[in-house]
Amino acid sequence: MKTYRVAEAADVLGVSTDTLRRWVDAGRLAASPGTDGRTAIDGADLAAFAKTLADTAPEGVGHAARAGSVSARNRMRGIVTSVTKDTVMAQVELVCGPYRMVSLMSTEAADELGLAPGVLAIASVKSTNVVVELP
């Protein structure tokens, strides 16, 4: 499973590293020393936390004021929070800053991309389609 350094996790959530460290210190987000001794956050834990923030925050996470000025044809970096698959199709949910994005794709595509909670991905949005790519 992927782990994130504090700066990476803060970037994914659209907050400052200081805010993320305060959340870790307050016990809101689990973290532990990584293999290099630096603070690491498990990808699945980060995905669950991002989903909680997106579901409970009144204006989403991160740069909500900027959200209104973003073009609909954007590539938004975020974290996969859920993948639901059957034999043909997969539903992939991501939290990208203040946005919760949902993409429908083939199960084969989701498997080839290795999509799972905690994976960093890009939601490419145009009209009603959400395309998921790896960074």
Task: Offer a concise description of the structure.
By secondary structure, the protein is an alpha+beta fold. It is 31% helix and 36% strand.
How does this model look, in words?
The structure is a single chain. The protein has 135 residues and is α+β, with helices and mostly antiparallel strands. Helices cover 31% and strands 36% of the residues. The protein is globular and about 40 Å long. The protein has one domain (1-135): OB fold (Dihydrolipoamide Acetyltransferase, E2P), CATH 2.40.50. Helix 1 packs across helix 2. The longest helix is centred in the middle third of the chain and has 14 residues, at 43-56. It starts with a strand and ends with a strand. The strands form 2 sheets. It has a 5-stranded antiparallel β-sheet. A hairpin with a 5-residue loop joins strand 2 (32-33) and strand 3 (39-42). The model is unreliable at 59-70 (pLDDT under 50). The chain has 5 helices and 8 strands, in the order E-H-H-E-E-H-H-E-E-E-H-E-E.
